[in-house]
């Protein structure tokens, strides 16, 4: 092939110089022999005559035509192979698109089943029982751009309804901030009133004159759905984005008696392609996708939006470093914390679902005021998931625990149980799984505390530098591997709200749970109880000591360690240490109806130390307050 092209180039040069082909023929060169061999004498003569008449242009056209004649088969095969490599993975033959009547009937069936599927929203459980709330009991939330002041708050869907609508809306929020409930409520109300827009959604920012068909998609099930499609057709390496959407939505609303060719199996693609149809595509839980799937889903959703721009697209996620939606033109909005009126409404909704029901009572309102005044619970009430968990505890028969550590322990147990139920939907996880995870989280929190930081990477944790001050350092064999801990903390971030992940790959405990979880782990490690005394003057360790002693008393029944720490603090004769010991005694005896019997030996010495401390003008007020707390215990006894 290269030789032939070289010969053609020589021939073109010869003609460009104005030399006749006959002068070549006189020489009888290798060139002449090759041309006659390839073309034959007659074709060679014709080509020479054309060259003399029309010059190089005609010659080139003739040569190209000749090359195509000689090499068309291998060239065609090469083009076909290259084209196949550029094509997306082949898809199995799709059934014919449903006609208008079939689509209308399928839409009616879809909306009915969607209402059934979305009627209730899973909520905080008690022990191993799943709890739920009516999805219609939704408290309207507000959003704002990143870093905007509270005055920039707007209805949750307002960014979609502007003069030039953006390609889509990205709703960001921490775990439990109300992302899923917002989408489920919107889909439910649209399904109930379609093709109209109900007033509740107009209040959330949608336009009354629009007609939007809701398509609600749980992205958490995406990997399993794609794997199922690949298993059903092993020749198909990867299903298309629309095929996966069709299968995912159908799995949510399928019926036991659906025929194999039901239009519901291609409901999403049929409606997205239908003329004069507008859909509201609600993709819930982008952050719950495996990392390796996120880029693909973002890219293919962007391509879908470009092909079908008349529809509306909403995606929910936690703040992630690898989200590219804003680069595609999606508007980013962050869910705002609950405001007082929203807190009161959600509290009432929880009492309606789990308590005695009826109109708000004075007891219900008084308990909410108590929760909002509690220094440990008050930071939690602005988060819908945390407030629901507190309400769950309050509506139990035993009510909210009195001890600070007991309250936080019950909160942690509820949240980990919530996580276990979500992860074990297909294969239930044993309850012991929570205890193992709690130990890992406690060790991680204690490492943060020792390192004097609120944020920590897994690399820093596993390096061992956090344990430099501990003697002896914890046995590395007792802690999970980096891969195991990464998997654990990722699911905790996703499902509990106990942890959050920064965009720099650091992890931070939320709502003060770092101190409690560190105290939990420390209380279970008697080796380090002496660490309390060395840290007695550090304000950052004050709550740690109180939580740990409370947990040791309430759960471990380790009275000997509690007595030893309190005696050491009192014996130091340091005013701050004595006041700390008194506060710890008040905490560990709270809810016991007075002094715990095994701690009564501490009562008289502690009162004597406080009486002496009250003579000091600097600590007089604090000592008097501590005496008052202990006197309350005396009265209860």
From TrEMBL:
Coiled coil: none annotated. Residues 240-345 form the NACHT domain. It comes from the Bacteria. The keyword Kinase does not apply. The chain crosses the membrane at residues 54-76. Gene3D superfamilies: P-loop containing nucleotide triphosphate hydrolases. InterPro entries: NACHT_NTPase (IPR007111), P-loop_NTPase (IPR027417). Keywords: Membrane, Transmembrane, Transmembrane helix. This is NACHT domain-containing protein. It comes from Candidatus Viridilinea halotolerans.
């Amino acid at each position: 092939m290269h030789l032939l092209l070289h010969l053609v180039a020589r021939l073109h040069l010869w003609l460009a110089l104005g030399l006749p082909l006959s002068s070549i023929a006189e020489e009888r060169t290798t060139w002449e022999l090759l041309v006659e061999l390839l073309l034959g004498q007659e074709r060679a003569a014709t080509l020479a005559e054309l060259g003399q008449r029309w010059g190089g242009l005609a010659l080139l056209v003739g040569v190209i035509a000749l090359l195509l004649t000689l090499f068309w088969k291998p060239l065609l095969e090469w083009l076909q192979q290259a084209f196949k490599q550029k094509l997306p993975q082949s898809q199995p033959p799709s059934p014919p698109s449903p006609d208008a009547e079939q689509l209308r009937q399928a839409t009616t069936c879809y909306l009915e089943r969607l209402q059934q599927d979305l009627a209730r929203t899973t909520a905080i459980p008690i022990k191993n029982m799943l709890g739920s709330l009516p999805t219609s009991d939704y408290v309207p939330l507000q959003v704002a751009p990143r870093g905007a002041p509270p005055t920039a708050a707007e209805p949750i869907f307002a960014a979609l309804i502007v003069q030039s609508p953006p390609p889509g809306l990205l709703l960001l929020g921490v775990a439990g901030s109300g992302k899923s409930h917002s989408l489920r409520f919107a889909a439910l109300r649209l399904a109930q009133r379609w093709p109209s827009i109900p007033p509740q959604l107009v209040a959330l920012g949608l336009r009354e004159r629009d007609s939007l068909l809701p398509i609600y998609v749980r992205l958490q099930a995406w990997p399993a759905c794609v794997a199922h499609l690949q298993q059903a057709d092993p020749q198909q390496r990867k299903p298309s984005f629309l095929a996966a959407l069709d299968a995912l939505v159908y799995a949510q609303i399928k019926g036991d008696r659906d025929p194999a060719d039901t239009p519901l199996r291609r409901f999403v693609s049929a409606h997205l392609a239908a003329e004069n149809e507008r859909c509201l595509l609600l993709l819930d839980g982008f952050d719950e996708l495996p990392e390796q799937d996120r880029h693909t889903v973002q890219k293919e959703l962007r391509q879908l939006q470009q092909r079908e721009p008349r529809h509306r697209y909403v995606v929910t996620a936690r703040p992630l470093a690898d989200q590219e939606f804003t680069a595609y033109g999606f508007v980013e909005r962050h869910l705002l914390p609950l405001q007082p009126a929203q807190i009161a409404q959600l509290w009432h909704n929880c009492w309606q679902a789990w308590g005695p029901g009826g109109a708000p009572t004075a007891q219900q309102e008084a308990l909410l005021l108590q929760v909002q005044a509690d220094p440990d619970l008050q930071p939690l009430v602005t988060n819908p998931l945390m407030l629901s968990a507190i309400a769950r505890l309050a509506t139990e028969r035993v009510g909210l625990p009195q001890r600070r550590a007991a309250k936080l322990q019950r909160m942690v147990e509820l949240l980990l149980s919530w996580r276990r139920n979500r992860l074990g939907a297909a294969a239930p996880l044993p309850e012991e799984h929570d205890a193992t995870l709690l130990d890992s989280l406690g060790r991680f929190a204690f490492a943060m505390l020792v390192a004097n930081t609120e944020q920590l990477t897994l690399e820093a944790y596993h390096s061992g530098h956090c344990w430099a001050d501990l003697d002896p350092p914890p046995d590395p064999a007792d802690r999970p591997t980096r891969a195991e801990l990464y998997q654990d903390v990722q699911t905790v971030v996703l499902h509990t709200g106990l942890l959050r992940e920064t965009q720099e790959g650091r992890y931070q405990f939320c709502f003060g749970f770092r101190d409690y979880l560190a105290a939990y782990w420390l209380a279970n490690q008697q080796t380090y109880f002496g660490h309390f005394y060395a840290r007695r003057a550090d304000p950052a360790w004050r709550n740690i000591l109180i939580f740990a002693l409370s947990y040791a008393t309430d759960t471990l029944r380790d009275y000997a360690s509690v007595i030893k720490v309190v005696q050491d603090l009192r014996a130091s004769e340091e005013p701050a240490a004595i006041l700390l010991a008194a506060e710890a005694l008040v905490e560990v005896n709270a809810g016991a109806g007075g002094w715990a019997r095994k701690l009564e030996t501490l009562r008289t010495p502690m009162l004597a130390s406080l009486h002496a401390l009250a003579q000091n003008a600097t600590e007089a007020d604090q000592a008097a307050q501590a005496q008052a707390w202990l006197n309350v215990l005396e009265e209860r006894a």
